[in-house]
Amino acid sequence: MIDDDTTKLLRSLAKLIEKPEIKAFEFSLITTLSDLIQPESINIYEIRTLRQLVADHPEVYLLPIGYEDNPDESDSVPLLLNTEPQFEECLRSQEMVVGPSGDAIRPLLRFIYPIRGKNGISGFLVIENAQKISRDHELVTILLAFYHNYVSLLNDNQRDHLTGLLNRKSFDNKVMKMILSLSAQNKRENDKVHYFLAVFDIDHFKRVNDKLGHLMGDEVLLHFSQCMNQTFREYDSLFRVGGEEFVVILRNVDAEQTAAIMERFRKVIETHYFPQVGQITTSIGVTTIFEQDLPVTIMDRADQALYYIKEHGRNQVAFYEQLIAEGKLHKKESESDIELF
């Protein structure tokens, strides 16, 4: 006979795996734990090394989940890791840390659990409660182990196996969610939220494969993706969409900032040493994301800007909208006559 607690846990696990997207799964995990142990508060914090838009001065923050998508609506705020000794101790020991929280009128205990990712501790589950209960601790431990295994499976499905960036399968879904979010935000806010998409193509990549072989070509792709991870902000979305073609989506930036960011990345690649290959350059096509867009039309505009560069010298950055304004490109008929049904 299965007892009531076990039945409740199994039902909770069944509901959790209905969420095939990591962020949705994390929110579901919080809801599930809230139902099971009924804490005073509960949240998940991700470890993020946030870079400035143009200058490179990274700081290690703890970001509550959902903050990067809607920072103005989040009840929680980012925390600087080096100002939070309990989190630092949890990161160092890789074990649960208990410390005081709340105030003198209503003292609470804060339980900080490490969340293990592919490359070590990736974040923390933080629970506040009046006391430590062994049964609750056991439930949390079980669900965090389940979390680790399930997120690993999701990452295997959603990420490129060579570079670790999001794959083409994830691209359409991610962009569609951004468009819907953009539309909702712009209806609520006076100031428009801006998204930009850029497509990167490694110049003359075929020569590398033909001359040095595909293993060395893979090494170039790996170095290129590492440059992306080191250059862009943690909450920018990075994709490998096929072959030597990569995509980044920037949010909360304007055209001038985007141009500076892309030019910085172009120089990073131009000055990076690729073992046995030497210098590699990249061509970058950029477009604005509009709330009435579809993923395929956004990619088509960025690709048109990219192809223009490749026909005019390579190793440059070009914006589709600017090329249209200057008469260097002309809108396709299909861009202004798309039927939705």
Structure description:
By secondary structure, the protein is α+β, with helices and mostly antiparallel strands. It has two domains: 4-157, GAF domain (Beta-Lactamase, 2-Layer Sandwich); 168-336, Reverse transcriptase/Diguanylate cyclase domain (Alpha-Beta Plaits, 2-Layer Sandwich), CATH 3.30.70. It contains ten helices and eleven strands. The strands form two sheets. The chain has a six-stranded antiparallel sheet, sandwiched between helices. The radius of gyration is 23 Å and the shape is elongated. The model is unreliable at 336-341 (pLDDT under 50).
Report the span from N to C terminus: 52 Å
Low-confidence stretches: 336-341
Tally of helical runs = 10
Q: Going by CATH, what is the homologous superfamily of the largest domain?
A: Reverse transcriptase/Diguanylate cyclase domain
CATH class of the largest domain: Alpha Beta
**Helix fraction by DSSP (H/I, runs of at least 4):** 40-55%
Helix/strand-derived class?
alpha+beta
What is the gyration radius calculated from CA atoms? 23 Å
Instruction: Spell out the helices and strands N to C.
Output: HHEEEHEEEHHEHHEEHEHEH
